Amino acid sequence: MQKKSKRQSGNTNLASEFYVASQLFRLGYEVTITLGHTKEIDLIVINPTNGKTITIDVKGLKNKSNWPLTPQLKRKDHFYVLVNYCNKFNDLDLNPIYLKANNVGQLDKIETSNNTANTVLINGGKITTAATWKNMGIPYEIKEVVYFQAAVEVEEGTTILMQPSEKLIINGSGSLKLKGTANANITIKSSKPSPASGDWKEIDIYASSNNDNVWSYVNIMHGGSGSYGQVWVEKGASLTLNNCKFSEGRNCDLYVENGGNIVNNGSTYTICPQ
Predict the structure, then answer these.
(1) 127-165 in b/e burial notation, b at 16+ Cβ within 10 A?
(2) Whose CB among 36, 91, 151, 256 lies 3.0–4.6 Å from 130's, allowing a Cys bridge?
(3) By mean pLDDT, which of 33-42, 155-164, 191-200 is the weakest?
(4) pLDDT tens across 4-34, in order?
(5) Is 127:152 a contact under the CB 8 Å cutoff?
(6) What pLDDT shows up at residue 10?
């Protein structure tokens, strides 16, 4: 039998840690992932109701095998969670992954089927570490406002679903590169099964971003519920649009303040009046 590499084992355990953390987070607990910095402890879990803290050591299996479990830390407030998902998330009643925005860059591709809500659910927050959002094969779904305060790239073919009244904010030296291609566009649209114009707010680009915002082959639709179109560009901010298409916004697409900079290469959109 072929021996599993350390990298394969590490990826399986990390995926299992994120899965357990997402389930606990969904139940209302505060969860910190140690990312291997604390021996024998993968998750630190706080009950916000009573302030009690427990620790968890997660053991994950990709294939059928024996559990890699040799308990070293024995305490009443320390638990072991065993996960065997065979690299698949199937037949779940909820989203297969639920996490904060700053952790999305840690994800690897997964296999999913027959899940009631088949998206990676992002519960908002600030992104402070440079990351790549991989094309997971299922959409990302924005549940709360996401602040891009570091350089983020999104892979070709990715779909981002926006829940009602939500927005994306690019500021604090952050940037957002949407790297679609002619054969694999990136799509940002409403999360509703029957979408309509103005379902979500907009993408805000502030002058405090690093102005490396380049979007290629992106379809943006159903936004503009506020007064700033589907994308708002502050004075001093910059956005490059390469073969992007805006559609089904409430009133208009781009609200560009005087002094804001748009570089357009083959994109279609309407400008909002000021």
Answers:
(1) beeebebbbbebbbbbbebbbbbbbbbbbbbbbbbbbee
(2) 151
(3) 33-42
(4) 444 455 577 888 899 899 989 888 999 999 9
(5) yes
(6) 59
Distance, in Å, from the CA atom of 206 to the CA atom of 232, rounded to the nearest integer, reads 8
pTM given for the model: 0.74
The Cα–Cα gap between 248 and 263 comes to 22
Cβ–Cβ < 8 Å for 169, 204 = yes
55 bridge partner residues? 44, 78
**19: which strand partners?**
none
Amino acid at 134: K
> For residues 6 and 271, which has the higher predicted lDDT (pLDDT)?
271
Q: Give the distance, in angstroms, between the CA of residue 207 and the centroid of all CA atoms in the same chain.
A: 23
90-100 average pLDDT score: 81
Domain spans, the chain: 1-86, 90-274
- Residue 5, both tokens: 């590499």
Residue 73 has pLDDT above 80, yes or no: no
Three-class SS state of 23: helix
Q: To the nearest 10°, report the CA torsion of 237, 104, 165, 238.
A: 10
Determine the Cα–Cα distance for residues 268 and 253; give it in Å rounded to an integer: 9
**Residue 212 in contact with residue 177, Cβ under 8 Å?**
yes
DSSP 8-class letter at 89: E
The confidence score (pLDDT) of residue 6 equals 46
Quote the tokens at residue 51. 């302030």
CB 190 within 8 A of CB 221: yes
List the one residue out of 90, 102, 188, 196 whose CA is nearest residue 139: 188
